[in-house]
Design brief:
The chain is an alpha+beta fold. It folds into 2 domains: 7-201, Fructose-1,6-Bisphosphatase, Chain A, domain 1 (2-Layer Sandwich); 210-334, D-Maltodextrin-Binding Protein, domain 2 (3-Layer(aba) Sandwich), CATH 3.40.190.80. It is 33% helix and 20% strand. It is built from 9 helices and 12 strands. The strands form 2 sheets. Strands 1-2-3-4-5-6-7 form a 7-stranded mixed beta sheet, with helices on both faces. Strand 5 (177-184) and strand 6 form a beta hairpin. The longest helix is centred in the first third of the chain and has 26 residues, at 7-32. The chain binds 3'-phosphate-adenosine-5'-phosphate sulfate and magnesium ion (3 copies). 3'-phosphate-adenosine-5'-phosphate sulfate (PPS) is lined by residues 72, 130, 132-137, 218-220, 222-223, 246-247, 267, 271, 274, 277. Keywords: Hydrolase, Magnesium, Metal-binding. Mg(2+) binds at residues 72, 130, 132-133, 277. Pfam families: Inositol_P (PF00459). It catalyses: 3'-phosphoadenylyl sulfate + H2O = adenosine 5'-phosphosulfate + phosphate; adenosine 3',5'-bisphosphate + H2O = AMP + phosphate; adenosine 2',5'-bisphosphate + H2O = AMP + phosphate.
Length: 336
């Protein structure tokens, strides 16, 4: 029997993402839905962000002590007198996940978070972590995801995403929630629930033409232009309403056939996408029978640091319609 690639990395990443997802769920339950929080108070998501990063980085450190990590967050806001209140909350929450022998001191907590400060690059292996992707989704009780990927020599080899609010079965939107997605390069894409470790292979839906397709896009038009995507939909003969959701849950949804096309159209000349917003999701898509490129048809280049400096926007779809989607994207964007 051929030994599965990256078996230990896969197992550790699943455990880390599940634990971090549970931290986020408990913060939401105790803080966001509590009465103490005002609408524009971002602190609950901040606490969950830092704790989730500390939890994942600690697991990675235990099993792969020399692996560097590109994580979205750093401990700056948790340091000194000004960071004391936040630090204490994050400390308590993070230690709630670990056994008595694994408890972190405050210093070790800050150190764990800052292990995410790696610059990335083209050689060797490193992890990319978004402790909460879709922070706005988290706050509104919508979609968010804990996203972890392993990048080796600039190529994503493993991606694990925890989506606490995503229904396990899209056909039962009011059914159980908490979906975990796993992809290893060359080994396919899988889904399981948070509570049952049985994994099911997933793939894109078998639409024959773009007319049958559904778009999936960001909730915020500031992150992807809704007006451009409407024009692209028209060119492709798409009549179904776009499904809007936050976070890399979009990649997960299309990979299991809930939608078909994820468009992230550039909204500004200056915004550069971050690797942690796309690494795990893009591998899931290609392993589920999809294709991913930027709006110019270039492969996403994860080898140039913490950002996707060489790319503009993202187009992900079922592989068989990708070139047609790209053509429509080009037609609309070139007129601007
Ligand atoms: N201007 C702009 N353009 C494009 N992308 C941006 C921009 N600003 C931020 N971000 C990043 O978007 C991440 C969330 O993406 P989403 O697809 O979830 O957006 S949305 O919440 O649905 O609007 C979000 O990830 P999180 O910070 O992890 O939530 C950001 O990294
Ligand atoms: Mg993000
Ligand atoms: Mg984030
Ligand atoms: Mg952020």
């Amino acid at each position: 029997m051929v030994k599965a690639a990256l078996a230990l990395e896969r197992k550790v990443a699943i455990q880390a993402v599940l634990q971090a997802s549970k931290v986020c769920q408990s913060v939401f339950k105790n803080l966001v839905s509590g009465e103490t929080i005002t609408k524009n108070d971002k602190s609950p998501v901040t606490v969950a962000d830092f704790s989730a990063q500390a939890v994942v980085n600690t697991y990675l450190r235990q099993h792969f002590p020399t692996d560097p990590i590109v994580g979205e967050e750093d401990s700056k806001d948790l340091r000194g007198e000004t960071g004391k209140a936040l630090r204490e909350k994050v400390h308590e929450l993070t230690n709630g996940v670990f056994s008595s022998s694994e408890q972190l001191t405050e210093d070790k907590l800050l150190e764990a978070i800052d292990r995410g400060n790696y610059a990335g690059g083209a050689t060797g292996r490193h992890w990319a972590l978004d402790p909460i992707d879709g922070t706005k989704g988290f706050l509104r009780g919508g979609q968010y995801a804990v996203c972890l990927a392993l990048i080796v020599n600039g190529e994503v080899q493993l991606g694990v995403m925890g989506c606490p609010n995503l229904p396990v079965d899209a056909k039962q939107p009011d059914g159980p929630r908490g979906s975990l997605f796993i992809a290893v390069k060359g080994e396919g894409a899988f889904q399981r629930s948070f509570t049952d470790s049985n994994e099911t292979p997933i793939k894109f839906s078998d639409i024959k033409s773009t007319q049958e397709a559904t778009f999936c896009e960001s909730v915020e038009s500031g992150h992807s232009s809704h007006s451009d995507s409407a024009k692209i939909a028209e060119l492709l003969g798409i009549t179904r309403e776009p499904v809007r959701m936050d976070s890399q849950a979009k990649y997960c949804s299309i990979s299991r056939g809930d939608g078909d096309i994820y468009l992230r159209l550039p909204v500004s000349e200056t915004y550069v996408e971050k690797i942690w917003d796309h690494a795990s999701g893009s591998l899931l898509v290609t392993e589920a029978g999809g294709a991913v490129s930027d709006v110019n048809g270039n492969k996403l280049d994860f080898s140039v640091g913490r950002t996707l400096l060489k790319n503009k926007g993202v187009i992900a779809s079922k592989a068989t319609i990708h070139s047609e989607v790209l053509k429509a994207v080009h037609e609309v964007l070139s007129k601007k």
